[in-house]
């Protein structure tokens, strides 16, 4: 009898484990490349307020995975690997889920509408962005330390602009595009590669999935009982 009770307990725990199974993390990576310089137009101070041609880097990841993005919380992490650029205050960075919307996650740190330059901080290393991170990329220093930062997407503002405001609950599948614009002259850079880690919700299995497992485990418990 002891064995049958134990087997029944195992069956119950197995079903509970299925019901609370953790959601998957979907990961994908994209190519890097050069970040060219802005070409300022005649009579302009920069390519932000124009006229001019911003330096433009774009790279697209296609994700075919099924599922949806977790509907709340810190559900998306963007990683910029081996990024190098002088004068961080020149840069605008955004992430777009093509056809669904996008989010600027950094806009010219240290600049404002009345100035043509932002912070002269350099980038050198790998930088990750997530709502839950505590690093502030609006840091005036020689080189921004590689590490973890929260998104600051509002124009000329260091205020946090969470990815969750833009991507909660969307389907995961489709094209995801990273865009980096250089909006002032004399500084260039490059990106080694970039990647996304997207959290999806836990899935409670359908009864059709649970019942065969329950039947098999209870049958095993019955056989063990008969042997006692």
Give your account of this protein's structure.
This protein has three helices and twelve strands. The chain is globular. The chain is 19% helix and 36% strand. It has two domains: 1-21 and 203-228; 23-202, Sandwich (Jelly Rolls), CATH 2.60.120. The strands form three sheets. Strands 1, 5, 8, 9, 10 and 12 form a six-stranded mixed sheet that branches. The longest helix has 21 residues, at 207-227. The chain has 228 residues and is an alpha+beta fold. It has helices at residues 2-19, 164-167, 207-227, and strands spanning 25-35, 39-40, 52-53, 55-63, 76-85, 91-97, 101-107, 122-129, 143-144, 147-149, 174-182, 189-199.
Global shape: globular
Q: Tell me how many strands there are.
A: 12
The average pLDDT is 84
SSE pattern: HEEEEEEEEEEHEEH
> Class of the largest domain in CATH?
Mainly Beta
The CATH level-2 architecture of the largest domain is identified as Sandwich
End-to-end separation in angstroms reads: 6 Å
**Percentage of residues in strands:** 35-45%
Oligomer: single chain
- Low-confidence runs (pLDDT<50, min 5 residues)? 1-5, 7-21
The profile of the biggest β sheet is: 6 strands, mixed
Question: Domains counted in the coordinates: how many?
Answer: 2
Provide the structure class.
alpha+beta
């Amino acid at each position: 009898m002891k064995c049958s009770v134990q087997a029944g307990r195992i069956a119950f725990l197995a079903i509970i484990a299925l019901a609370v199974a953790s959601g998957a993390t979907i990961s994908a990576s994209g190519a890097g490349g050069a970040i060219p310089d802005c070409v300022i137009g005649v009579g302009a101070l920069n390519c932000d307020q124009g006229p001019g041609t911003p330096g433009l880097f774009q790279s697209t990841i296609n994700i075919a995975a099924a599922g949806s993005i977790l509907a709340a919380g810190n559900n998306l992490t963007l990683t910029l690997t081996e990024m190098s650029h002088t004068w961080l205050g020149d840069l605008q960075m955004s992430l777009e889920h093509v056809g669904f919307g996008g989010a600027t996650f950094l806009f010219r740190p240290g600049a404002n509408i009345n100035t043509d330059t932002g912070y002269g901080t350099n980038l050198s290393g790998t930088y990750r962005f997530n709502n839950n991170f505590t690093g502030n990329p609006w840091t005036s220093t020689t080189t921004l330390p590689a590490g973890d930062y929260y998104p600051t997407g509002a124009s000329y503002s260091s205020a946090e602009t969470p990815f969750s405001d833009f991507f909660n609950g969307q389907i995961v599948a489709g094209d995801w595009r990273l865009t980096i614009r250089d909006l002032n002259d004399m500084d260039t850079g490059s990106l080694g590669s970039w990647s996304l880690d997207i959290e999806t919700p836990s899935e409670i299995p359908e009864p059709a999935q649970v019942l065969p497992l329950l039947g098999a485990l209870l049958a095993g418990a019955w056989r063990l009982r008969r042997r006692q």
